[in-house]
Structure formats: C-alpha cells, structure tokens
Specification:
Helix content: 25-40%
Number of strands: 6
Strand order of the largest sheet: 1-2-4-3-5-6
Radius of gyration: 14 Å
Largest sheet: 6 strands, mixed
Distance between the termini: 37 Å
Order of helices and strands: HHEHEHEEEE
Strand content: 15-25%
Number of helices: 4
Amino acid sequence: MGQRLTANFTLEELTKTRFNLDNTPNATQVQNLQTLCEKVLQPLRDAVGPVNVTSGYRSKDVNTLVHGARNSDHLYGYAADLQSPDGNHKKIYDWLKTHAMFTQLIWEFGGDANPQWVHVSYNPKDLKREILRARNVGKRVTYSRLQP
C-alpha cells in the first residue's frame, strides 16, 4: 500500500516509474509531494472522483528518459500528470482551472475537446497560476499561454 500522503494518494503512486531506475525522493521532495496532494490532488479527487497519477516525482535519470524539461517541477516533487479513469481529462483541467491554486496548469496535447493528460504543479513560493497548452509542431513541443 505504501506511505499515505492524503486519504487517497500514496507516496508509491506519486513515485512510480516504468523504468528500472531508482526514483526515491529525498525528505524535501516527499514534503513537496505531500503539499501537492493536500493542496491540489486531494481537493480535486474529492470534487471529481478518482484521478490517476501517470507521473509524479521524477529523479534526474527518469526525467531525462521521458524527455522532461531540465528544470521540470517533477524533479522537486511539485508536479503531477493526471488522467481521469473515464477518459474525460477535461473535467480535471476545468476543475483545477476554476478551483485550485497552482504554479502551472498545462493542457497536454490531445484535441480541442479533451487533453491527452493534465499537468499541474504546486510550488507554494510561486503560485502564479500559469495556464499553458502543449502541442506538437513538427518534431518540437510548443507551449502557448491560455487565458486564466
């Protein structure tokens, strides 16, 4: 079962990886994950129902393998990528945009009706509520700023 961070989220699910690499966060990163769960993920879960964390904390090696940004909030335990078990990821995005404080909220790929997944980060020292959309343009990922 693993160490419980909140009623519905465990450290194990926030650190799982498909790679056979050590992905163990340090004490500060665990505290950041706990704060992310308390301030964002658990309120989201309470409002919309079950939420799948597809990526939470990432060690430097894991982040490199998934082509994450060099300064990704995942490296610090500030971020999670989320999907809804029913495939309606837009409801996650909409709830977070309307009800949550966050550092960044990203509509990740997908079409205009539904993102492929939703990225949210929570750094208590930088709650700028930046909202972005990620798209593939050729072989590059581009980000455009969306209205709050």
